Amino acid sequence: MIVIYSEEHRLQAGRSELNDGQLVPCYEKPSRADIVHARIDVVGLGPVVEPSRHGLAPLERVHDAGYLGFLQSAWDEWVVEHGAEIDALPLNWVAPGMTRRSVPRSIDGRLGFYSFDAGTPITAGTWRAATAAADCALTGAGRLREGDRSAFALCRPPGHHAGRAFYGGYCFLNNAAVAAQSLRDGGAARVAVLDVDYHHGNGTQEIFWDRGDVLFVSLHADPADEFPYFCGHADERGGGAGEGANLNLPLPWGTDWNGYAQALATAAGRIGAFAPDALVVSLGADTYGGDPISRFRLLSEDFLRMGAAIAGMGLPTLFVMEGGYAVDDLGVNVANVLTGFLEA
Ligand code: OKP
Ligand code: ZN
């Protein structure tokens, strides 16, 4: 399986995020990609290649042009106002009764306008790292178009919380959505996105909400208990032409492989019925029992089973890396999904 990886992920190295009332070191850090990269070498998964540059056009297929412009210039505007010693974090958001009619002029207002949490610092290298990650996903999509059965985009920063015009949850550009759209534009009639990250992929859901050509299926911790709290419930099924093309499978804290496997079988049934031409997997390994910010109980060996179950769907498959914060075990867990897929 070809692996697409860019060293530019290092340019996203936020200093702190707001968590439990405190500024703490970012969980989403460069060592995450390094350990996955190292493990892929050890298991000999496949050649590791650099992404090719795809430019703005494929990003504009799923993201708002004004939002992309904001992301590109936000750091420079922040530095003018607050200096470069502190990362840019938002502090104010809209509440019911306030207006979102116009984009604020102030950088602080714009950070709040385009975000939904205070855990996602914009830094000097955010734009370059995020575009390199999207390029990894796009390059992977290109391999599928050329006939590969599978590919792995080793992306960071992750993407599934980023919507058409918002960032949050450590995500800026929705790598999986950009790839799914590029598969559509390359001739796939229908594409399914399967999100196995512990957190609901609210950005991907929002982007494809009213689309019948892209199925979004997500297994995640129940938003009644867990981030992102305001999205990911079972009754969110898509709207308009996308009615029924969104399936959320929220699971309780403490879910182990037994409960997870059942939901994955439900997901497989829905994906099979949709009969897509390609599958994009948002691959987060934060369902692991040892994850510091999550509360499922998967074991490292369960990720082999997850890979095999995904292989059973019998589709050309692009894996796009998302979350997973137990860094010491992240390489094994992510590589296990991929080897489980290949050996099935
Ligand atoms: C990104 B991805 C924990 C706070 C967590 C944000 C989590 C973002 C997860 N107390 N805040 O889906 O792995
Ligand atoms: Zn996650």
Automatic annotation (TrEMBL):
Organism domain of life: Bacteria
Record-linked InterPro entries: HDACs, His_deacetylse_dom, His_deacetylse_dom_sf, Ureohydrolase_dom_sf
Record-linked Pfam families: Hist_deacetyl (PF00850)
CDD domains associated with the record: HDAC_classII_APAH
UniProt cofactor(s): Zn(2+)
Domain Histone deacetylase: 28-339
Keywords assigned: Hydrolase, Metal-binding, Zinc
Signal peptide coordinates: none
PANTHER family for the chain: HISTONE DEACETYLASE 8, HISTONE DEACETYLASE HDAC1-RELATED
Family: Belongs to the histone deacetylase family.
Protein name, entry field: Acetoin utilization deacetylase AcuC-like enzyme
